[in-house]
Each structure stands twice: as structure tokens, then as C-alpha cells.
Amino acid sequence: MNPEMNATSGGGAEQPPWLAPIVPMLLQQTRAEFLKLWRVPAFSIFSLAFPLVFYLFFGLPNAGYTVTGTGVHYGAYLLVSFGAYGAVSVMLFSFGLAVANERGQRMHVLLRATPLRPMVDLLARIITALAFALAMLVLLYLFGIAAGGVRLPAGTWINVTLTLLLGATPFIAAGFAIGYAVSPNAAPAVVNLTYIPLSFASGLLVPLSQLPSFIRAIAPYLPTYHYAQLAWNAVGVPAANLQASILWIVAYGVGFIVLALLAYRREANLQFS
């Protein structure tokens, strides 16, 4: 018996020689995803620059004030708010629009004919989105420190960053659901008409105290509201109910995953059955 055949086939423990190694494939696919998004100025500029513009116009004029009863400066509070807005927008746009556009170009059909494993493609997209979100946060932090005089302990910076990145991950599934459920032409409008009102109604762009009473009444049922609660708590503004907000985010994440799977299966049935 050929020893090489015995080593690769015995017990099924070894990876078949005709399968590409996962790690190199993941690295190459991540690099390709990053370059794809970076070469789309509408996405890269929107994702990296918009939170800085918001902070320039709304954060700097209020940086010297303090959030009532907390001792947290509005400069830090709004820095986290706009960071949360930017992180979720990266997730929705990098997945929702990218997936919809690839469907329009039938790239998903081409990918099914390649050796690329679906899980590797998904992980590469997630890593790329998190990398873009982290780059946006770093730029926003540097701007807040230099222009807004924001000063936080190193542990708080780390806590805020991890909270913003982890809290935004459920919106990855929301982006997938939109990308597979709507047409490429409708995807930008659906993302904007969904996310921007949610951001306003959750207090990310305008404090809830300045919003109409009926919006304040529905805010606690929105995913972005609970994401904002987690983010503000990380910077020192206590959440109304931290455990409840975590449960809400987890529940919304499960719901988004279910919607994404249903939309994906519907698309697969239409294209490949």
C-alpha cells in the first residue's frame, strides 16, 4: 500500500490533499475583500469620514459640557455615539450593498463553481468589516483626542472598542438579510431608509431627550437603542438596564440570522433549483 495514500485516507483525520488549506485561503480571501471595499470610494469615504464629520459639527461644540449626573464629558459621550453609528453602518453597507451588488453581477453563481468554501468567504467578509470598523474608530478616537480634548484611561478605550465591535456584529446578519432580500438597485435605499431613522430614534445622532415623546416611547424596542446603551455604559454613562440590553441585542442577532438564512435559501432556490 502506498504510504502517502494511507496517511491521507486512514481514519479520515487528515485533510484530503486536493483541498486547499483553510488559513492561506482565508488570508487571501480577506485581502481580496479588503481591496474590493477599499477601491469603492463611496464606501470607504462614507465609512471612515462620516463619523468624523458628525463629531466635527455636533461633538466639538458640546465637548465641554457634562452628561447630567455622570461626570462624563459630552465629548466622550458623542464620540462613542458616532462611533456606534459608524460601526453599524460599516456592517450594513459592507454586507447589505456588497451582497446585493454581487447578486446583480451574478458573482455568487461564479463563487459556487470555485473551490472557495462558503464559510471561508463569510469569515473573510466578517474580518474585513471588523477591520474597517476598527480603522474608523481609531481615526475617530484620534480626532476626538486632538480636537475635542477627550481623555480616557487606556482600559476604557479598550472596553469601548470591544463593546462597539462586538455589539455591531448582529448587524452583519441584518446586512446579509437585506443583501439577499432586495434587488441591487433597491439595496442602498433600503439600508439608508432603515438605518438612519433607527439611529435618530435611538439617540445616536440626537439625544433622546430632544426627540418627540412618541419616538422616546418606541426607542427601547429598537436594536440600535440597546447597542447605544451598551456603548454609553462602556464610557461611564450607566445603562438603564445593562442585562436587558445585552439580551435584546442577542435576541435581535438571532432574529437577523434567521432572516438572513430565509433570504439566502429563497435566493438559492430561485437560482439553483
Task: Outline the structure in words.
With 273 residues, this protein is mainly alpha-helical. Helix content is 75%, strand content 0%. Residues 1-12 have low confidence and may be disordered.
Any descriptors?
mainly alpha; globular; 273 residues; 12 helices
Fold blueprint:
Blueprint: H1 3-9, H2 22-38, H3 41-59, H4 74-104, H5 107-112, H6 118-148, H7 154-168, H8 170-181, H9 187-202, H10 213-218, H11 223-235, H12 242-272
Helix pairs in contact: 2-6, 3-4, 3-6, 4-6, 4-7, 4-8, 4-9, 4-11, 7-11, 8-12, 9-11, 11-12
Summarize the structure.
By secondary structure, the protein is mainly alpha-helical. Helix content is 75%, strand content 0%.
Integer average pLDDT = 85
Q: Level of helix content?
A: over 70%
Structural Rg: 21 Å
How would you classify the helix and strand content by structural class?
A: mainly alpha
| Shape designation | globular
Biggest β-sheet description: none
Q: Tell me what portion of residues adopts beta-strand conformation.
A: under 5%
β-strand number: 0
Distance between the terminal alpha carbons, to the nearest Å? 42 Å
Low-confidence stretches: 1-12
Order of helices and strands: HHHHHHHHHHHH
Q: What is the count of DSSP helices, taking H or I runs of 4+ residues?
A: 12
